[in-house]
Amino acid sequence: MASERTTTETFSSHDERLHIREFVETDRDTLREIYLSSRRSTFTWLAANLFQFDDFDRQTSGELILVATLGEQTIGFSASWVPERFIHHLYLKNGWTGHGYGRALLDATVERIGRPARLKCLSMNRHALKFYRREGWIESGRGVSGSGNYLEMTLPSPTEVSRDRVPR
């Protein structure tokens, strides 16, 4: 999604080299590769040939894309449909999970799109479901896609959280 402004943010984490910024065209090939390799290694119940290098272009068209970099290395991205506060994609490069970078990217994405925010997560992606639940996301629906069953998850607005006493 074209944006009138470009932001660069540094998030306080154990690694001060982490920066999250908006997509620029020179990111495209790196993000294509992250998207392809992450899906092939995560969605092992699906045929690997279902995932193609140029899927990134089609499946993020018109979306706000945030890019996570660590030093000079791109380690992940998120893509969101802002009008519906819907996080369509959140991927880290293989080997970079478990260090707080996904949380920082998720937090930056929610900060940009607002709350309540929504996403869908395939039911068989247990690692991601555990991550989202730990971050305060709650199940708000279920469905079936060509890739399998999924849960729709919502991160309530802060007023809903305090009213329902759901930890964030």
UniProtKB/TrEMBL annotation:
This is N-acetyltransferase domain-containing protein. SUPFAM superfamilies: Acyl-CoA N-acyltransferases (Nat). One of its GO terms (molecular function) is acyltransferase activity, transferring groups other than amino-acyl groups. It comes from Kolteria novifilia. Residues 18-156 form the N-acetyltransferase domain.
